[in-house]
Amino acid sequence: MTLRGEEPTGQHFPHEADEDFSVRAALRSPRRLRTELVAGLVVALALIPEAISFSVIAGVDPRVGLFASFTMAVSIAFLGGRPAMISAATGAIALVVAPVVREHGLDYLIATVILGGTIQVVLGLLGVAKLMRFIPRSVMIGFVNALAILIFLAQIPHLVDVPWMVYPMVAVGLAILVLWPRLTAVVPAPLVAIVALTLVTVLAAIAVPTVSDEGELPDSLPSLLLPDVPLTLETLQIIAPYAVGMALVGLMESLMTAKLVDDITGTHSVKTREAWGQGAANIITGFFGGMGGCAMIGQTMINVKSSGARTRISTFCAGLFLLILVVVLGDVVGQIPMAALVAVMVMVSVGTFDWHSVRPSTLRRMPRSETLVMVVTVAVTVVTNNLAIGVVSGVLTAMVLFARRVAHLTRVTELEQPDASVRVYLVTGALFWASSNDLVYQFDYADDPDDVVIDLSAAQVWDASTVATLDAIVRKYAERGKRAHIVGLDTHSAARHSALTGRLGDGH
Question: Which of 326, 444, 472, 502 has its CA 20 to 30 A from that of 174?
Fold first, then answer.
């Protein structure tokens, strides 16, 4: 385990110098260590029903999801680049791998998880995490708000067609979560709510849904195994599409979650290490018969925001406590009322949502394009129930809107010249496929004099489309016996223009 929350990259990050974020300091401080241990316990309790539910989605035994959550959490505590982030079996991964289980069985699922983890390691080593810089702030806000909505919607099934006592228990749980932090921060409110409602349920013999109703808990430790699949090209063709999908969805959710925790804690994590760490954790999970997973945003928010954890200790303990709870204390854990966990997750949803982003005053100040990107991200995520699809949709929308906005900033103006035999045009703005398409129509080919100068000193040539457009302009003047001169290119634009001009063919 990395003792100071530091990463083996030679880089220096704020959290490396801050003792509050080091494992060594937490081990030396009883208060800090207690916070980390209690946070891990609360997360472990919240992981149990989630892992069981995701196992049902994937079409596998609950043990597969629970063991995956254990191995993912413990592995990423050592391998990941974002301290205090929780990785386990997730709904997004379950949706991706469900067809493999349904059509080919559990062994092919395990092979898919191992291959998907391998792909994640390769992508991590290739630096795919650096693509995070291309995700706009509006997409991040949409991601957070969509996450909050999904967490809330996931609790609805636990509130429909249930005994009436569930509703007052949820209300009491919410009251504890709101009021307890005002009394003390020594014991996290989520743990108090879970313990209190469980005691009330057991002592008063209240008949409400419990964790045991979600599925059978395992009674033994996970064991190392190899998938029983033929090592053939046909097997690879079956599992490869799902493995790629799992790898991309898992990386996207994990890196977005890491960025969110960075913002909350005011520290910087190593995204490249997190990327290959997720892959390695999935490989380990596959060899122990797990269904694979990635960062869990809801449980991470419980760990970091609600419980105040900051180190790898909480992540490791979440996995360790999960195994102890389901294997050793399964009968006790099974009596936890779902109402308690629903209350915890509802408060996580409320705390996760960026309420400032939807205030009328914020919406009035924010450019409409930014608001649209956020709305698209939220809407697509909620409709598809897939954060990765929502993020991709938001990024694509932002790209289109940005290209459209930049395209309108390009202008062609005529400069006054003392010599009427020469006309000079000044082009300003970024010239690329979206802005240069209409450039060809901005010149008076018929009435211009024999010599025309097109000054690009205030413009930049970004792609082949622009070079093709400039060639078309020169050609239109040449067809009328006139000469067009391209001048003022900066170094990069001149290099691109000289390399491509006259070599793109007519109309290309």
Answer: 326
